[in-house]
Amino acid sequence: AQSVTQPDIHITVSEGASLELRCNYSYGATPYLFWYVQSPGQGLQLLLKYFSGDTLVQGIKGFEAEFKRSQSSFNLRKPSVHWSDAAEYFCAVGLKEYGNKLVFGAGTILRVKS
Amino acid sequence: KAGVTQTPRYLIKTRGQQVTLSCSPISGHRSVSWYQQTPGQGLQFLFEYFSETQRNKGNFPGRFSGRQFSNSRSEMNVSTLELGDSALYLCASSLVGTGGETQYFGPGTRLLVL
């Protein structure tokens, strides 16, 4: 069955430290890959997406993600975290034949300590 | 450009009642998708509409239905509400929903079923 795994439910990092959020997927083909962020009481905002080509993609707010086909992973990274990055982060995958349907991971809650 | 709007933002209903939620996509967007977000099940795809036709459907009972109007606005309806229907309902819009498109999410409607 198709699935998306975010193994870390909570992550706490110090402000200024680097961040890596993990995402693994289980699909037969290479899917479209997305990272979204959700602040409390808000909808989802797209950080970045991968379709094909360069496996390192840059997004908004200084985030980047690297697609690794051999590991079926799409990890999100940021070199220096700011307090305003505290939020919940969702990895999502889609397949061309399913149109806009996205399958989301369970999410990772990021806490930033000063 | 105005973002995706959802009305109402908050709603309280009792078991057995029905509810209708509304979503107005970004101007020019013709694809609207709906998602249910709960603490236990996370984000789950309900359905997608394009040009007034349901194009994809998630694994939800028939009590969940939707429609799209000629101006691309969409409504979803839940009949015979159950306690487990309490959730944040998010809609997302995109230009044509060909898969891999950026989907823009609204702030959601928070439904509480008592």
Which tags fit this structure?
heterodimer; A: 114 residues; mainly beta; 4-stranded antiparallel sheet; globular; B: 114 residues; 7-stranded mixed sheet; 11 strands
Number of helices of chain B: 0
- The tally of beta strands of chain A, per DSSP, is 12
Quaternary structure of the protein: heterodimer
- Hey, which two chains have the biggest interface? A-B, 26 and 28 residues
Structural class of chain B: mainly beta
Poorly predicted regions of chain A are none
Instruction: List how many beta strands of chain B DSSP finds.
Output: 11
Order of helices and strands of chain A: EEEEEEEEEEEE
Topology:
The complex is a heterodimer of chains A (114) and B (114).
Chain A: E1 3-5, E2 10-14, E3 19-21, E4 24-26, E5 32-38, E6 44-50, E7 56-58, E8 64-68, E9 73-78, E10 87-94, E11 102-104, E12 108-113
Parallel strand pairs in A: 2-12
Antiparallel strand pairs in A: 1-4, 3-9, 5-6, 5-10, 7-8, 8-9, 10-11, 10-12
Chain B: E1 5-7, E2 10-13, E3 19-24, E4 31-38, E5 42-50, E6 53-57, E7 64-68, E8 74-78, E9 87-94, E10 104-105, E11 109-113
Parallel strand pairs in B: 2-11
Antiparallel strand pairs in B: 1-3, 3-8, 4-5, 4-9, 5-6, 7-8, 9-10, 9-11
